[in-house]
Amino acid sequence: MTFKKDFLWGGATAANQLEGAFDVDGKGLSVADAMPGGKIRWQLLSSDEFDWTIDEEKYVYPNHKGIDHYHRFKEDIALFAEMGFKCYRFSIAWTRIFPKGDEIAPNEAGLKFYEAVIDECLKYNIEPVITISHYEMPLNLAKTYGGWKNRELVGFYENFAKVVLERFHSKVKYWMTFNEINSSLEMPALSQGMIPKTGSKDQQNVFQAWHHQFVASSLAVKFGHELNPDLQIGCMVIYATTYSFDANPINQAHTMEHIQAFNYFCADVQVRGEYPAYTARLFERNGVKPLEIADGDLELLKNHTVDYIGFSYYMSGVENITAEEVETVQGNMLGGVKNPFLEASDWGWQIDPIGLRIALNDLYGRYQVPLFVVENGLGAYDKVESDGSIVDDYRIDYLKKHITAMADAVCDGVDLMGYTPWGCIDLVSASTGEMSKRYGFIYVDLDDHIEGTGDRSKKKSFDWYKQVIASNGGDLTNG
């Protein structure tokens, strides 16, 4: 077998995209709750007029209802168990524990909910893998404090992290501090809670916010390891394998600079424990002055680094600054130049399985810590046939090729912990707020307005992935 015996096969979700029950049992509003659904979401979050106001007469807010996992988690986890999941990656909604984010005492109803979810996983011998903050910071912290550019959020996050770590550390071994922390280079609203009205277009604020998040992450690692040195606490980044448009050294140098800023910077600090050598040049390119760094911050970063790197990989990108007329494509945060050697998804994301092998070798060669592919998948339109079946061979093909790439990387010597494909059950898309952009092995009968029965049904990929897990990645055939 290529993959280790205890390889963590599973799936991944986020609280704000599937739980629903956005105002139930004391939960407060999160930034995700204020993000309208539809392809206009990105445009609105980047607009100078956007101010986090929820206008239900003008927009649809699919995150409010999600797929009602809050009330149906037992049913969903039973389906995960039927597939043979070894782990399940999910997040704890900050606003279920601290509705406004700045309270001192936690909301017990929220803690009891996640305890029930964790216990349900453990009933089936499924290891919980918990993301502490996954694009769902309290809306109050974004509106009142201006998001992560404000140093006060370090203390609020520390309080939140300590509460959930202390409550669940005896049951949960695997943790991640922030989801796709580097996404803020392109969309600070998601991870940092900053919009143009609160300074998101000023890179000084983005990098200062990152510093505060780095400090907060290290505080969580410190506290978690004090509770139990065996806890595995990782960082989580988007990784996009990036190619230069051509062999022109100008484009090659530009690609190097882009990779430093997007793929490496956040991981360099969280894994190596210090700001990288290229920081001064990176700040210069982005017009960033020296950051406000408190006494003890750098020592904290150095002494409390993460144990592993979790990362999302959906696509690769191409960088160019010399050619004037090039075809462009959409992507996960990053678009860019069209790669003529690759096909694309229904949403224009360029599909590049070999790029995952390159990513794994690059990250492991750079950091020499275990890696965990915690998001990977194909967002596609699924058709329900007259007999109720969903024949998603395109999804099977995508996943098969990426698992093969992972196996190649393991043969290359990469230490790979596990694989949790994104959206193991259909949920609300983070980028567009759509249900029609489906990733799951499990179909959920809801449309983009969250109308429908909500019934769950198995796609063809359900049994295929069950076979993959049962064979520890040895049988990828599509019967």
Mind explaining what this structure looks like?
This protein is an alpha/beta fold. It has one domain: TIM Barrel (Alpha-Beta Barrel). It is built from 15 helices and 16 strands. It has helices at 15-18, 41-45, 69-83, 94-97, 108-123, 139-144, 152-168, 188-191, 203-227, 249-272, 279-286, 297-303, 353-367, 393-411, 460-470, and strands at 8-12, 87-91, 127-133, 174-178, 232-238, 242-244, 308-312, 317-319, 328-329, 336-337, 343-344, 350-351, 371-375, 416-419, 442-444, 456-458. The protein has an eight-stranded parallel beta barrel, surrounded by five helices. Strands 6-8 form a two-stranded parallel ribbon. β9 and β10 (336-337) form a beta hairpin. The longest helix is centred in the middle third of the chain and has 25 residues, at 203-227. The radius of gyration is 21 Å and the shape is globular. The mean pLDDT is 96.
